[in-house]
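User: Sequence recovery, please. Input:
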């Protein structure tokens, strides 16, 4: 049997994003749509619809025309969501700009995207955004400071927007992929991509207007603005933003205060909450479901979220920005084994296959290969980069994800690593994920990251960075000793380093390349690192 699977077919939504939102708002005008804890804001669907109309008038007053591009360079806030919907309402293209970007990256996005307006806060307690923007020398025609005079003026000078009915096939959003590899690329996503993916996710979690989704993940990333806001607005659920940036305590407190029924996060966010000293005192009993995604999800952490955070219907989503993002998802009532050790089944209207990277052939079930996906979810391409688009999407419409995976006989998928993540030590292929899962079984280990280091003899050796639980000391040697005889000798990390934290992107992806660079420098491996291969 070949590793090919197809989610069930359902009719796609062929309406633009704002039509769908308007219908939901018409149905549930008095239910909560958006709760922003740090701004003390609570908007019903009727309130949010009215705020979006005002924002759309303001955008029209700036002279923006359908298909113009506007950027939002901001941490999570109510204005982000208003702009997301107002852009969709007005046929504008929203450009998500990572709030962690500094002048170099911001200039790149400003120049590359050709945005007509940029929305940002002047500063927050960490960052002076105004000064960074000035540093770029590339400010767009309109710079609007959220909450400032320019924002107020925009509303005061609002005019009736030109009547516009965006086509579902129009690009609604450009999301820059986070920088774990190479330079950022602008992923072009249509109304149809986004609203249908939001619907798949909402259906997968059985979201209803009675649900409150605690969303500590950033809105600039697809986890926030699709799995978060799109899924909420197709289903009538409330989107709860606990803080401007991820904070474990604020997230837990918001769950308790607003009786959240769903909670989102990348694995490291769940780890931070489970380990927080206040965790045992927080009442999480309102939780029912949620999504862990964005990075390989450790089995042990999933198990703890189900048991200790009271999320009996927790799900895993696997996907990437280029696929809107969800490709596979586990089912609420799957067996525990399916829900904690796989990333689920192909989503509705989605094809998935696993391909041998050398031969290009679909592999047999159980064999590893690269995961390809096809269907409504595939991006239109990378903005202004036809070569990169052709490299990512083949002539038959398959998106090559660059992720390595296995399809089981029951058609559930298991992610084994990134294509370039595989460590090859003396000819043995090692999937870092497997070693990380094993290290997590050590009682002192809170989190582990495994990566390859260059070695003159073996090609690569294995290194592990480990974070310990606060109350549980262990030495690097003890951890290595723990591995002995429990996993194959070639999988035992030669280098183990105990660290306080990992280098991370703001979306919570660990940056293994930084750990690797540190070790190459520290262990003086540059000779091995510069060996050329055929
Ligand atoms: P991004 O485009 O920033 O959302 O990153 C997508 C990448 O994150 C994927 O290509 C995977 O490498 C990884 N990823 C996302 N979800 C999962 C998951 N559930 N398990 C393992 N890796 C994941």
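Assistant: Recovered sequence (534 residues):
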């Amino acid at each position: 049997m070949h590793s090919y699977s197809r989610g069930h077919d359902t009719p796609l939504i062929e309406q633009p994003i704002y039509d769908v939102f308007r219908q939901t708002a018409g149905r549930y005008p008095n239910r909560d749509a958006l709760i922003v804890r740090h701004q003390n804001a609570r908007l019903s669907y009727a309130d949010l619809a009215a705020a979006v109309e005002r924002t759309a008038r303001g955008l029209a007053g700036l002279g923006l025309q359908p298909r113009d591009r506007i950027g939002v360079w901001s941490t999570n806030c109510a204005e982000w969501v208003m702009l997301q919907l107002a852009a969709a309402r007005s046929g504008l293209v929203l450009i998500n700009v990572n709030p962690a970007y500094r002048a170099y990256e911001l200039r790149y996005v400003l120049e590359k995207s050709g945005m007509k307006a940029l929305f940002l806060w002047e500063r927050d307690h960490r960052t002076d955004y105004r000064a960074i923007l000035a540093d770029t020398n590339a400010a767009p025609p309109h710079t609007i400071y959220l909450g400032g005079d320019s924002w107020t003026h925009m509303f005061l000078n609002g005019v009736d927007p030109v009547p516009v009915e965006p086509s579902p096939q129009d690009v609604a959003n450009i999301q820059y992929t986070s920088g774990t590899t190479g330079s950022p690329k602008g992923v072009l996503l249509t109304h149809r991509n986004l609203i249908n993916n939001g619907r798949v996710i909402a259906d997968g979690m059985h979201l209803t207007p009675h649900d409150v989704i605690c969303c500590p993940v950033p809105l600039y990333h697809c986890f926030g603005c699709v799995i978060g806001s799109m899924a909420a607005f197709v289903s009538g659920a409330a989107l709860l933003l606990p803080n401007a940036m991820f904070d474990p305590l604020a997230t837990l407190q918001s769950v308790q205060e607003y009786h959240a029924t769903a909670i989102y996060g990348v694995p490291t966010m769940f780890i931070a909450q489970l380990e927080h000293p206040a965790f045992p005192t927080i009442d999480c009993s309102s939780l029912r479901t949620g999504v862990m995604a964005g990075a390989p999800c450790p089995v042990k952490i999933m198990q703890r979220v189900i048991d200790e955070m009271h999320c009996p219907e927790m799900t895993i989503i696997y996907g990437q920005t280029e696929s809107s993002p969800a490709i596979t998802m586990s089912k609420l009532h799957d067996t525990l084994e399916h829900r904690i050790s796989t990333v689920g089944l192909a989503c509705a209207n989605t094809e998935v296959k696993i391909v041998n990277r050398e031969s290009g052939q679909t592999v047999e079930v159980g064999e590893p290969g690269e995961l390809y996906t096809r269907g409504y979810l595939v991006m239109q391409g990378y903005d202004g980069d036809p070569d990169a688009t052709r490299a990512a999407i083949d002539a038959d419409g398959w998106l090559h994800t660059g992720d390595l995976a296995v399809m089981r006989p029951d058609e559930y998928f298991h992610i084994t690593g990134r294509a370039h993540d595989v460590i090859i030590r003396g000819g043995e292929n090692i999937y870092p994920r497997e070693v990380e899962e094993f290290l997590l079984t050590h009682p002192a280990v809170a989190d582990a990251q495994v990566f390859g280091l260059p070695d003159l003899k073996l090609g690569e050796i294995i290194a592990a960075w480990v974070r310990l639980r606060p109350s549980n000391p262990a030495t690097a040697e003890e951890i290595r000793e723990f591995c002995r005889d429990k996993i194959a000798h070639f999988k035992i990390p030669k280098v183990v380093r105990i660290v306080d934290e990992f280098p991370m992107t703001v979306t919570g992806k660990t940056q293994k390349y930084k750990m690797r660079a540190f070790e190459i420098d520290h262990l003086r491996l540059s000779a091995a690192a510069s060996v050329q291969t055929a």
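The pocket of adenosine monophosphate is lined by residues 177-178, 222, 293-297, 316, 318-321, 325, 343, 401, 403, 415, 418 (CB under 6 Å).
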